[in-house]
Amino acid sequence: QKRLAADIKKCGRNRIWLDPNEASEISMANSRFNVRKLIKDGLIIRKAVKMHSRARVRKNLEAKRKGRHTGVGKRRGTREARMPSKILWMRRQRVLRRLLRKYRQQK
Predict the structure, then answer these.
(1) Interval 5-45: pLDDT, tens
(2) CA-based diameter of the chain, in Å?
(3) Potential cystine with 45: which of 17, 22, 32, 88 (Cβ 3.0-4.6 Å)?
(4) Is the model's pTM score more than 0.70?
């Protein structure tokens, strides 16, 4: 019955609820027609989808923004992979070149 109901309601077997008080009546139903009748009567129900909360993730990200959970033990990549020295160098060069440009303009 559960398999039939799942097929009729287009969901998995885990989402089907069979009324435990009407177990005998449900066990008598041996066709799609009968199962449909039970669904209409409310003895067989398709349960709601379970919630998958992101609250924990949000809390963790908030802490990460404050700089928590970023110690040596939490790091997977090498220092170079996390922040390449090339990029740091490029930033430094650009800053210096901007300064030079500004100073030349002032002359």
Answers:
(1) 999 999 999 999 999 998 999 998 989 999 999 999 999 99
(2) 98
(3) 17
(4) no
Please answer whether residues 41 and 34 qualify as being in contact, where contact means their C-beta atoms are separated by less than 8 angstroms. Answer: no
What does the DSSP assignment read for 7-19? HHHTS-GGGEEE-
Long-range residue pairs from 39-43, CB within 8 A, at least 24 positions apart, any chain? 39/5, 39/8, 39/9, 43/18, 43/19
Tokens of 4: 């039939």
Rounded CA separation 27/9 (Å) = 18
Summarize the confidence of residues 67-90 as an average pLDDT: 96
Q: Are 67 and 74 in contact (CB under 8 A)?
A: no
Please say if the pLDDT value at position 1 is more than 90.
no
Q: Which two tokens stand for residue 35?
A: 């199962």
Alpha-helix runs per DSSP H in 13-84:
23-28, 32-41, 55-65, 79-82
